[in-house]
Amino acid sequence: MDVDFVPPPPRPPPLLSPESLHHLCTHGYVGLNLPHHLTEEYDQLLATFDAFFAQPADTKRLYRPGTGLGPEHLGPPTSATNTERGYNHIDGEKEYLTLRKSMTHLPPGIYDAAAPLWHDTAHLLHRILGDIGVYLGLEPTAWDSVVADSLEPSDGVYEDKKGGGKDEKEKAKDERDEKEKAKDERDGKAVNGRQRTHPRDDPPTLLRLFRYEPGGGGAEQHRDLGLLTLCVCWGKGLQVRPQLPPQPPVESNASSQSPPPPPPPIPWLDAPRVTVMTGDTLHVLSSYRIPSAQHRVVVDPKEAAESKANDSNEKAKTEDTSPSKSRRSIVFALRSTTAGDIDLTTFGGYGTVGARELYDNIRKSRVNINANKETRAVMRAEYERVHGKGKVKEVEEAETQSGKQPKADITESMDGDNTIEGELVGVA
């Protein structure tokens, strides 16, 4: 029987409904119902990381970032101030474990639970980027090149090429390999056709697991650095702020000396349990058409009151410090590559921009909300010194209330401590 040839569809079917996609692209966030298998993966990872956070403090500290900490150190070999890898604890606020694509230097059991979740979450957010591309009038594949190196986790094998016992010929070969790999990175090529398994080769995308201390811990108002963030929460605390709808023009009255009334305040809303949020890199690459999600993490007043009451009750205090009694969240931040150049014509712009340059210039003009309080204060003061601004917090709050989306500047950077990385965000 002869049948007419039917070409394949030009793209996968949309993942988000038109209403959900419009809300995401208008306000920067939207609630999401995870597929059943992914819900199970998040529950499994939660159970695994609860078991880790229940360990004694000395055991957990073995996984903090650092170098030269002795043979018992199990954390990533990087700067001790790095908040984008390994275990970190901010006294009185929160503790968190950050995984990168290499999946190395992890506590037992974490890799097996995290690797499938990384794969499925990255591909889910990639699909949503495809929907956003169509919404913007771009090709659904526009984002492929900027996320390709983040979609699959590595095998968790750490290849330490700094070990001893090598002769001069082997050392010279390693040095040549490193130079060739660095060149391939700059050119956006695969490294020797293999997955990159050394932590220093990781793209910026990360998976982070938070546990907030009962009655304390949160995150001030901020915007995320990357493209899309998926946040799954157990317990209340994450809040989002919608964008101000367009305001009708105010007719001027020459006989009146009164200024026009201020725009109505924008309320903070409790975020859905599973929330997708847009970041500054998406804001920039969309030519500022899609806003970055304004969000924060706050302490539930009821939780704070109960925690204060338990301070005088040692038994209740001990019971309530178990991980299962705390607010927890798992955050997957899909970020753009830092390898090679990004062709801006793909996104409706002109020319190209270095991927690392774009990442650094968005990153360096931010305050790291996951650093400790003292470091946050230093970074904020440095930002104010460089930009000549005196009340940064009040200025951004005023911009937000007026409905103005602060732009992520891709040409300006802050001369701060470049060893401090993290969920680097808009100055709150």
From TrEMBL:
This is Fe2OG dioxygenase domain-containing protein. Residues 158-189, 300-322 have a biased composition (Basic and acidic residues). Residues 153-221, 244-270, 300-325, 390-428 are annotated as: Disordered. Residues 203-336 form the Fe2OG dioxygenase domain. It comes from the Eukaryota. Keywords: Iron, Metal-binding, Oxidoreductase. Belongs to the iron/ascorbate-dependent oxidoreductase family. Residues 258-267 have a biased composition (Pro residues). InterPro entries: IPNS-like_sf, Oxoglu/Fe-dep_dioxygenase_dom. The lineage of its organism: Eukaryota, Fungi, Dikarya, Ascomycota, Pezizomycotina.
